[in-house]
Amino acid sequence: MGAQLRIYRRRMRSVKATKKITKAMELISASRIVKAQQKVAASSPYANELTRAVSAVASLSSANHPLTTASANPKRAAVLIITADRGMAGAYSNAAIKEGDQLIALLQSRGLEVNPYLVGRKGINFYKFRNRKITASWSGFSDNPTYAHAKEVSDALINAFIADAQIDPNGVDELHIIYTEFKSMITQTPDAKRMLPLEVVESTGPAVILPMYEFEPNAGEVLNALLPRYIQARVFNAMLQSAASEHAARRRAMKSATDNADELIKSLTRLANAARQAEITQEISEIVGGADALASASAGSE
Amino acid sequence: MSQTVLKVEVVTPEKRVWSGEAKMVTARTLEGDLGVLPDHAPLLGVLADGTVSIKSTDGSVNDFVINGGFISVSKNRVSILGESAAN
C-alpha cells in the first residue's frame, strides 16, 4: 500500500472512532433532556402552590419583610451565574457567562459593586483564568441538580442579602440570577432575572381573586417561612431549566459533530479512492514502461 | 352528612408525592395540632416538622413525615408543601 493511501486510511479510522463517541454522547444527552424536562415539570406543582401562597400573603397583609424591601441606596449586587460542569455543549456556558458580563457592566454603570456567585466548573474556570473575583462557587451538579443543592446556594445568597451591605463586604442589596431558559428542544436562551428584593409576584394566567386566608400563627411568621423557600424554589427551577438546556445544547453540539464526522469520512473515502486509483495507474505505467525498456534493450542487443 | 370531600395534594420541590380525595387531614402547625374537614375556612399555616395524616375517602390513612412545610386550604383544596415528605 502506498504512503498516501495509508495516511488517508489512518485518518478515516480516527474520524470513525470520534464519530462513535460523539454519536453516543448525542444519544445520552437526548435521553437526559427528557429526564430533565420531567424534573422541571415535577417541580412545578410545588412552585405554583408556593407562588399562590406568597401572593396571598403579600396581597392580604401589610407585613413587611427584609427580603421584599429595597435598599434606599444600593451599594452592592450579587450575580449568580449558572453554567455547565463539562464542555462539549457548544456555546452553552459561554452564552451564560456573556449574559453575565453584560449584566455586570450594567450594574457597574449604576455604581454598584458586583459579587459574582458561580455554579458550574466552566464558569469557575473562566473567572479563575482571568483572575476575576469569585465570591462563592459550587460545582459538580450542573447536569442533575437536586433541591438540596438549590437550598445550599440560595441560603448563601439569602444570608448575603440579609447582611448589611454598608458594613459587611459580603452583604448585598440586590440579587440577580443568570440561567439558561429552556424554551424548546432547539431554543435555549440565557436570561437574567432579578430575584431580590422581590417584586410583585408575577401571576400566570388571569388574575385570581384570592380567598381571605387565615394565617397560622400570623401573616408575618408565614411570610418569614415562605419567602426563603420561594427563593429556593426559584433557584431550583433556574437550575433545572439550565440543566435541561445544557443537555439540549450538548445534544445539538454532538449532533453537528457527528454530521461533520460523516462529511469528513465521505471526503476522505473519495480521496483514498483517488489515491488508490493513482497508485494503480502508476503501477501500470511502471510495468508498461519497464516492459518497453526491456523490449527496446533486447531489440538493441540483437 | 355532607358529600363534599377535600382534594389533597402533598408536594415537594422534586415531585408530587401524593394526591387524592380525603375526608380529613390532620397536621401540626407551629400553633398546635390542626384538623381540616371539608368546607374549612381558607387557611395558610406553617407546619412544624412532624406527621401529617390524611384520611382518604376509601377509609385508608396515609401518614407523611413533612419537613419544613406549609399547609394551604381553600375551597376544599388542601395543599401540603414540604421540603421533604416521606411516608
General description of the model:
The complex is a heterodimer of chains A (302) and B (87). With 302 residues, chain A is α/β, with parallel strands linked by helices. In chain A, 61% of the residues lie in helices and 13% in strands. Chain A is built from five helices and six strands. Chain A has a five-stranded mixed sheet with strand order 3-2-1-4-5, with helices on both faces. In chain A, strand 2, helix 3 (121-129) and strand 3 form a beta-alpha-beta unit. Chain A starts with a helix and ends with a helix. By secondary structure, chain B is mainly beta. Chain B has one domain (6-86): Sandwich (ATP Synthase, domain 1), CATH 2.60.15. Helix content of chain B is 0%, strand content 70%. Chain B contains no helices and seven strands. Chain B has a five-stranded mixed beta barrel. In chain B, strand 2 (16-29) and strand 3 form a beta hairpin. Classes of the chains: A alpha/beta (302), B mainly beta (87). Strand 6 (214-216) of chain A pairs parallel with strand 4 (43-47) of chain B.
